[in-house]
Write a structure and sequence with these properties.
It comes from Trichomalopsis sarcophagae. This protein is an alpha/beta fold and 920 residues long. The chain is built from 36 helices and 14 strands. The two termini are 50 Å apart. 45% of the residues are buried.
């Protein structure tokens, strides 16, 4: 039998090592993206546009007079969106103080207040889509939120434009990206430059004052961003919140005055004030907590029945069909919302019933696509309501008891159809999901195995290929894959080719590499007990991700693991010192310090879901009336960083390093002082913080040049230390960049993680613990990741970090900054692991470094591979969008950041090899 030819030249081994790591990186990222592609289809809405022909003209066989039952109720509409407006901002105990005019209007029944439910993800772009189209946007739009594209489908704005309305807009420029040709006059402000919470709102209010005196518009949309920006910077309990809400209150009061005058003059106008999403107690948003998903909706200029239950709520997608009825326009074809009948008090009975019928019929056209629709109680209610409605029309449409029954049946049918439609929106490409899981499993095998010395036959390759195919078919059967898949599309277009060609390429390479490699079983025989325990603990953590509760409270798992590990080492060294002749309690004291610091640092930021609301140190610092405490903790963190760098530096480099560290620390301090979070000296000039950031990057560049000079000297005089020195300098640069992006109270985590890393180095210098380094650094990284306040909710992403030193929204730089800030501890732990190994084994080569990278990548890919299978199995779980999907995005992004760092490090390893190979 013919064999595949394989090169056996030992001189080419390093190139094969580079190929293997690069293949693991590329194939892993492709597999993860493929899984996300199958789990989060980009769009499920059609682009059809409703017309007036879609408005029903008959109810059963009874013709209705369209001009009487479906006509505009209002001439003007003002929609004011207050970004991140929480429900308790208007209904809480401080609402009368924060928004006195609005509170008074609602108290006097001159406005209606509705509790509005928002679907996750609670970010701006999908929420705008929900309000205007009546549809439930896809969860992946939390990522697309950074780059909004035009809505090509139907919306209330498009329908109003077609009916001749003149629409104007001021505020968040996301609207202009979603509706580029809709507005007749507009001025946008950037929603991403979160450092500004004053000008963004002033620009809107300035235009409002002008437009209220003009008569040439019929719909005005306003979107205020300042409240959201304050939330990202300082949280919902910041002293900045009160004046901002009072500012919004003044705007509401001013507009309501004009609306009231217009209504007195029979120029019917409705004024709607709403939040697009809420705000978590930590200040972020994107998750599914009540603080993020409950927002107020206030309506002025229209009377309401006030018969609603205070605990009832409407859905955000109900805004589009309700406005359609008020404006007399066709309901958007994409709408899944229900009309808010409570706002239809001015309508006659025939108008109300027709509006309900139109809403029900529009939903039924989508509902009847379910195969069992005829056998449901929803369908029976729908049919009975129509029959009674037609019968009522044939009795001269007089008010009687029949009307109440018709309304109840219509509302029941509409609500049930809405629930089922919104819960069955997505069609998962399960066959793509299972294929991605197979790929990830193959990559795990490739990354942890070694190359065989024997030649590979076609039979071995085909065996792996057939086994993979059988496993794919088995998973499709388990996960109940449907017939909808891009893999067997009948259309031979670019989209099909772009997906399938890489799939077959990766499949062939995976099968070939699996056939050429084997797991060396003898490697694990010499593992110490601690390494086995750490590996088992890591696997148990991975298995725990199958539970939504363990996902929400993942930090508790890592805190328990970490405190157990530190306690074990403390007990071990205590016993060792008791039995030793020469006693040294220095390392034991460090371990006890770690135990104490853990107790403090875990309270720095409350995280998770169940206990995230509890008081923490960061919240206490931010709510203090003065900045002395915050200033102290920032100065202590920066001082500790300078001291650590000083003591670990060579004596000859200490003066210049001390100077550069001090300058950078001052600039980091000034960056926070200008933001009013720490004390700013009175003599310091007025600044927006841009000059300080320019200086920071300039001195960082000087630091890098100095490091390159040091490496050049090491290349000439001490090649053996070149790799270790270069990794040490990389750790320093990572810490420098992280320090400028961190919140002031989180800067202390950087020196603490370095201290922990130094302690790990001392602990694992002993031969029996040296092989446990990888797991210890992995655990340490995860612990510090959660110390920082991160969680598996998108609300804890610190968006403000992406705009440090930026004047405008720059998506690439913003994304890089947010990624560095979020995964700072994870990457620092990985770099310290490589540096630790290089210190312990000074003769390490790039071959050993590449092997370490592959091992580390393996343990990063294990949880996402298992979690991909879990999310596929749990795709219809109640918490799929609030718990499982955000965690999936976090895992994918973590892999992307870590693998990107590994890819870039290869250039560094190549340089190190060349330095070693060069003759003096």
């Amino acid at each position: 039998m013919k064999n595949f030819k394989r090169r056996s030249d030992d001189n080419k081994t390093s190139y094969r090592d580079y190929f293997m790591l690069n293949y693991v990186i590329v194939a892993s990222m492709f597999s993860i993206l493929l899984f996300l592609y199958g789990f989060f289809p980009l769009s499920y809405n059609d682009h059809s546009i409703a017309t007036r022909k879609d408005i029903p003209k008959f109810i059963e066989r009874t013709r209705v007079k369209m001009d009487e039952v479906y006509k505009p109720v209002v001439k003007k509409v003002i929609i004011m969106v207050i970004d991140a407006m929480r429900w308790d901002f208007i209904s809480g105990p401080n609402s009368a103080e924060y928004m006195p005019m609005t509170h008074d209007l609602l108290k006097r029944k001159e406005g209606c207040l509705y509790k509005t439910k928002v679907n996750p993800p609670t970010v701006t772009m999908p929420r705008i889509k929900a309000k205007t189209t009546g549809s439930v946007p896809n969860f992946i739009e939390v990522v697309l939120n950074l780059g909004a594209t035009e809505i090509l489908g139907d919306s209330i704005l498009r329908q109003s434009k077609y009916q001749g309305h003149k629409i104007i807009f001021y505020g968040d420029d996301t609207w202009l990206k979603l509706f580029p040709d809709i507005f007749d006059r507009y001025e946008g402000t950037s929603s991403f430059y979160v450092s500004d919470y004053t000008e963004v709102d002033f620009n809107v209010t300035r235009n409002v004052a002008i437009e209220l005196h003009k008569k040439d518009w019929s719909i005005m949309v306003l979107h205020y961003l300042g409240l959201d920006h304050i939330g990202h910077i300082a949280g919902p309990f910041s002293p900045l919140i009160k004046p901002k809400l009072q500012e919004m209150d003044n705007v509401i009061g001013n507009i309501e005055f004009y609306v009231s005058e217009w209504n007195k003059n029979r120029e019917e106008t409705v004024f709607i004030v709403c939040g697009d999403h809420g705000m978590k107690d930590s200040g972020g948003h994107g998750g599914a907590t009540l603080e993020e998903t409950l927002v107020p909706l206030m309506v002025f200029g229209k009377s309401c029945s006030n018969k609603k239950n205070p605990n009832d709520h409407i859905s955000q997608i109900d805004i589009a069909p309700t406005l359609s009825v008020l404006l007399g326009t066709p309901i958007p074809s994409t709408s899944l919302g229900t009309i808010v009948l409570d706002l239809m008090t001015d309508l006659s009975l025939s108008q109300k019933l027709f509006a309900l019928y139109y809403n029900a019929e529009q939903l039924f056209l989508k509902y009847q696509k379910f195969s069992d629709y005829q056998y449901t109680g929803t369908y029976k209610n729908y049919q009975n309501a129509i029959k009674l409605h037609a019968a009522w029309l044939n009795t001269n449409s007089q008010p009687n008891d029949m009307v109440d029954d018709i309304i109840i049946m219509y509302e029941s049918a509409i609500i049930d159809m809405k629930k089922r439609l919104t819960s069955n929106l997505l069609e998962y490409d399960v066959q793509v999901l299972t294929l991605a899981i197979i790929f990830m499993g193959q990559i795990l095998y490739i990354s942890t195995s070694t190359e065989k010395s024997t030649p590979i036959s076609y039979k071995q390759f085909l065996t792996i290929f057939v086994a993979s195919y059988m496993m794919w078919m088995f998973l499709n059967q388990i996960f109940d894959s449907g017939t909808t898949t891009v893999l067997f599309s009948q259309r031979l277009d670019l989209h099909f080719l772009f997906v399938t060609i890489p799939i077959f390429g990766i499949l062939a390479l995976n099968c070939y590499l699996c056939a050429t490699r084997a797991i060396a079983s003898d490697k694990t025989r010499d593992w110490p007990d601690l390494q086995w325990l750490l590996m088992i603990g890591t696997l148990f953590h991975t298995i725990s991700l199958a539970s939504s509760s363990f996902v929400e409270e993942e930090h508790q798992t890592w805190y328990y693991y970490w405190i157990t590990l530190v306690t074990f080492f403390a007990f071990y060294h205590f016993r060792k010192n008791i039995n030793a002749k020469q006693k040294s309690f220095k390392l034991l004291a460090k371990l006890m310090l770690l135990l104490v610091s853990h107790r403090i640092l875990r309270k720095l930021n409350s995280t998770g879901d169940k206990y995230a609301h509890l008081p923490d140190i960061s919240g206490w610092l931010q709510n203090r009336p003065c900045t002395i405490e915050m200033t102290t903790i920032l100065l202590f963190g920066l001082g500790l960083l300078i001291w650590l760098d000083y003591i670990y530096e060579d004596e000859e480099n200490r003066p210049i390093v001390l100077l550069l560290d001090s300058i950078l620390a001052i600039l980091v301090y000034l960056r926070h002082a200008i933001a009013d979070t720490v004390f700013l000296p009175s003599f310091y000039f007025d600044s927006r913080g841009l000059i300080e950031m320019y200086y920071f990057w300039a001195f960082t560049l000087i630091y890098i040049v100095h490091s390159i000079y040091r490496l050049g000297a090491a290349k000439r005089h001490n090649k053996e230390k070149y790799l270790c020195l270069s990794l040490f300098l990389l750790v320093k640069k990572w810490v420098i960049v992280s320090s400028i992006l961190h919140r002031p109270y989180n800067v202390i985590l950087l020196p603490m993680q370095l201290i922990v890393g130094a302690t790990i180095f001392e602990l694992t210098n002993e031969r029996e613990f040296s092989n446990a380094k990888l797991f210890i650094y992995l655990w340490c990284s995860n612990v510090f990741y959660f110390y920082q306040g991160n969680s598996n909710s998108l609300a804890t992403v610190d968006v403000a970090a992406g705009y440090v030193g930026l004047e405008s929204h720059q998506p690439v730089i913003t994304g890089i900054f947010i990624s560095i800030n979020t995964y700072s501890a994870q990457i620092l732990g990985f770099l310290m692991y490589l540096c630790d190994y290089a210190l312990q084994y000074p003769r390490s080569t790039s071959k050993s470094m590449l092997l370490l990278c592959r091992q580390y990548a393996f343990w990063r890919l294990v949880p996402i591979t298992f979690y991909a299978a879990v999310t596929s199995f749990q795709r219809y779980h109640l918490f799929v969008w609030s718990v499982f999907s955000p965690k999936l995005l976090y895992e994918a992004m973590h892999c992307a950041v870590l693998l990107s760092v590994m890819f870039l490090l290869q250039f560094h390893f190549i340089l190190c090899d060349r330095v070693r190979a060069r003759k003096v």
